[in-house]
Design goal:
By secondary structure, the chain is mainly β. Helices cover 0% and strands 49% of the residues.
C-alpha cells in the first residue's frame, strides 16, 4: 500500500512562508487527485488545496492567492507553498492521495 510522509512544518511569524512536502512511496501520477487538508484543535478537518492528475488545481477560499500546490513527478513529491501566513493557518497539515491512507501530518504554527 502506498504511504505518504509529510514534512516541512514548523513555527513561523505572521506574514512568513513555509513549504510543506508530501513524499509518496509510489508514483504520484497513479493517483487521480492529491489533496492537502488541515485540522486545527477543536475544529473539523478542512480541505485546503487539491491537484488532479491533469495538473489542475483547486483551493479553499481562505487560502487562495496565498497557497500554491505543486508536484515533482520525478521525486514523487507534492508540495504546498504557503505565503503570507496568518495565525488562523495554524493546524496540522495532512497530505491525502485519493484512495490512499492518511499520513501522520506536519504541524504548522503561525505566531509572533
Amino acid at each position: 500500500q502506498v504511504q505518504v510522509v509529510e514534512s516541512g512544518g514548523g513555527l513561523v511569524q505572521p506574514g512568513g512562508s513555509l513549504r510543506l512536502s508530501c513524499a509518496s512511496s509510489g508514483s504520484i501520477l497513479s493517483f487521480g487527485r492529491i489533496d492537502w487538508y488541515r485540522q486545527a484543535p477543536g475544529k473539523q478537518r478542512e480541505l485546503v488545496a487539491s491537484m488532479r492528475r491533469s495538473g489542475s488545481t483547486d483551493y479553499a477560499d481562505s487560502v487562495k492567492a496565498r497557497f500554491t500546490i505543486s508536484r515533482d513527478n520525478a521525486k514523487n513529491t507534492v508540495y504546498l507553498q504557503m505565503n503570507t501566513l496568518k495565525p488562523e493557518d495554524s493546524a496540522v497539515y495532512y497530505c491525502k492521495p485519493l484512495g490512499a491512507s492518511w499520513g501522520q501530518g506536519t504541524q504548522v504554527t503561525v505566531s509572533s
